[in-house]
Amino acid sequence: MLSLPPLGSIILPLALVLRPALSDYTNANTSALHDNSQNCSCYVLNSGEDSSTPEYFSFYRFWDFRTLANGPREYITAPPLVNDTQDAGEEDVWDAHVLNSDAWNVDWSIQNWSKKATEEFPTRMVNSPANIYIQQNDDDSDPFTYLTLRTSRLEDFQSAGEIENLQKNLMHVSMRMKARVVGAKGAVAGFFTFFDDTNESDIEILTDDDTDVIRYTNQPAVDDDGNEIAEASQAPDKLPAWDEWQEHRIDWFKKNSYWYINDKQVAANTYSVPREPSGLIINMWSDGGEWSGNMSVGDSAEFQIQWIELVFNTSGPVEGPDNGYNKRSVDLLEKREEKGCEVVCKVDGTKEKGSPEVVGMASGMSVSWGLFVVVGIVSMLLGI
Ligand SMILES: *[C@@H]1O[C@H](CO)[C@@H](O)[C@H](O)[C@H]1NC(C)=O
Ligand SMILES: *[C@@H]1O[C@H](CO)[C@@H](O)[C@H](O)[C@H]1NC(C)=O
Ligand SMILES: *[C@@H]1O[C@H](CO)[C@@H](O)[C@H](O)[C@H]1NC(C)=O
Ligand SMILES: *[C@@H]1O[C@H](CO)[C@@H](O)[C@H](O)[C@H]1NC(C)=O
Ligand SMILES: *[C@@H]1O[C@H](CO)[C@@H](O)[C@H](O)[C@H]1NC(C)=O
Ligand SMILES: *[C@@H]1O[C@H](CO)[C@@H](O)[C@H](O)[C@H]1NC(C)=O
Ligand SMILES: *[C@@H]1O[C@H](CO)[C@@H](O)[C@H](O)[C@H]1NC(C)=O
């Protein structure tokens, strides 16, 4: 029962570039840690083998770490490595004015868990907040900043870094980051959805690999007997080098996973596509196992991220389940409640990364998603 209203009444091309209001933080520009899309009520993008069929999502977030400095050379010096005595994960985070600000804490949690050495994973691993910090490009003519997660090898343990997004009920997502990985061999940079070990979709950059190889996996990648499951993981080569800035992307749909680098699809899988509501985890680690390899004592490696973009649906309300501890305040989430699909915005091919643009909208009508899938297509066909 899709009926299309007269075009003139529903499609209003708008070139909207919304900037968030500047916040109260004086030392750092944490306003950039918020999304730029208050006016959009749903988001459209193309994906997969049949990328002519648009996919629609209810929510959008963009965390921009590029504009955190007020000028050049503010974050040029990397903080000292964690030392031998700091093996409890109790260290403070660096750059707390950003990484312990309200703007950060509303969406991210810095991890401090650890795991013991085992026969299979012979290096004890300790996540420390001191491995998460802001760094800056050292070219004064382009002094952008970025988030860094570092891992380093001590005599007795591997110090690692991990952050988790607090949106734990992602149910299908297109998640992207602009990132690079630099440093010593024996580390893994992970960007993945996570519910449990059998509902997990990964991008993993192994510093033991050639710089044109990336691992794209749906877990589980090993069976109960510890044997590798061939179809779980793909490792294409001849990719743009991961030690330079590239845009990485996972699209998680109901039945398909797609992986992209710089807008080009490079892997696809239908094996073990996650089915449970999931979170987003980003980490930099090693444990001496087969997958990560060993890092040499004294060495370190860094996972550096300019921005993170999420286009997603949720399972249940966006503020999370009201079970006493998982519910997030809608006030903190600003105007993030679901608004239907009245103002359709595109997220790719926009003038500015992170600023979705309106491609079609309804004026004064209450409409269903189904209708707006049609409107969206019409709008796109019209090239607006
Ligand atoms: C702060 O970030 C916003 C949003 O990214 C940007 O428009 C603005 O220019 C930044 N301000 C400074 C001083 O860098
Ligand atoms: C976009 O949002 C702003 C602030 O909420 C509002 O003033 C403006 O009218 C909106 N624009 C459109 C086209 O809805
Ligand atoms: C996201 O949710 C909307 C509204 O329920 C639905 O129409 C759309 O197909 C969903 N998108 C994906 C990719 O699952
Ligand atoms: C490790 O760093 C902490 C904090 O800076 C310091 O107190 C401690 O003395 C250091 N330990 C060693 C062995 O350098
Ligand atoms: C880890 O962080 C939590 C929450 O901030 C804190 O309560 C706990 O004491 C920390 N654990 C360690 C080992 O530092
Ligand atoms: C996801 O988790 C559910 C419940 O634990 C499990 O039954 C299922 O096998 C897992 N993996 C996938 C791909 O559904
Ligand atoms: C890492 O080093 C440990 C200790 O020397 C060794 O047992 C383990 O096999 C090494 N792991 C790899 C993947 O080479």
UniProtKB/TrEMBL annotation:
Presence of the UniProt keyword Transmembrane in the record: yes
Signal peptide positions (record): 1-23
Residue ranges spanning the membrane: these are: 358-382
GO molecular-function term, one example from the UniProt record: hydrolase activity, hydrolyzing O-glycosyl compounds
What UniProt keywords apply to this chain's record, in alphabetical order? Membrane, Signal, Transmembrane, Transmembrane helix
GO terms in the biological process aspect are:
carbohydrate metabolic process
Spell out the SUPFAM superfamilies in the cross-references: Concanavalin A-like lectins/glucanases
| Domain (GH16) ranges | 92-316
Q: What protein does this entry describe?
A: Concanavalin A-like lectin/glucanase
Organism, scientific name: Lojkania enalia
The organism's lineage? Answer: Eukaryota, Fungi, Dikarya, Ascomycota, Pezizomycotina
